[in-house]
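Hey, I'm writing a tutorial for new members on how sequence and structure tokens pair up, and I'd like a real worked example in the thread rather than a made-up one. If someone can provide the structure for the chain below, I'll link this post from the tutorial.
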Amino acid sequence: MSRASSLHRLQTLDLQIDRRQARLKVIGEILSESAAVNRGRHALSEAESTLRTARSASRLAEEELAANKAKLEEAEKRLYGGSVHNPKELQDLQAEVESLTRYRSALEDRLLEAMVALETAETDQRSAEGALSEATGQTAVRDTALAEEQARIATELDRLTAEREAALANVTQVDLALYTQVRDNRGGLAVALVQDDTCGACGLTVAHSLRQEIRQGDSLVRCIQCGRILYAG
């Protein structure tokens, strides 16, 4: 196996490893964050907050109406019960009864509005719960598939890493250093296949003398334009 062939084999393995590592990164990001679930949680949190406010408003309206009713009953009892004889006091009681009666009407309207708002809030809260449950269920199915893919890729990476270690046995430290340098500088592609007498990476025509040197395989020949290591295949 020529020096370029050994590096080409190493690159084939490195590219496969790169793709799987990139996919694992994507899977990890997906598993750690779900937009649909996050939106569902936010919507449910807002719905629950609105529901708490509506319940508080409804409870307050009920309490105010009950207090008004108690005051009105007491005022009417005193007004019509015969215990009060003073005309001025009776006049004041009459005015109080009328005022409490008018206020009761306003309180009843307020309670009705609060009850409608509460019913709407309860419906919205149930809807948000259902949407979150659905999103969570869909995410669980997806996450199961992703976890299985994650495990499969991890197994493949173990195999590829072992194959890479074996391939390194045919690569000298000098050649490995050059390969690593070119790979880092050329977007992960250090070795280019010569196709139709041209560099498979940049398309530059490779001189006849260089093609012969590449085929002999005794030395590493680099493309004079892109600097990649050329491999005849």
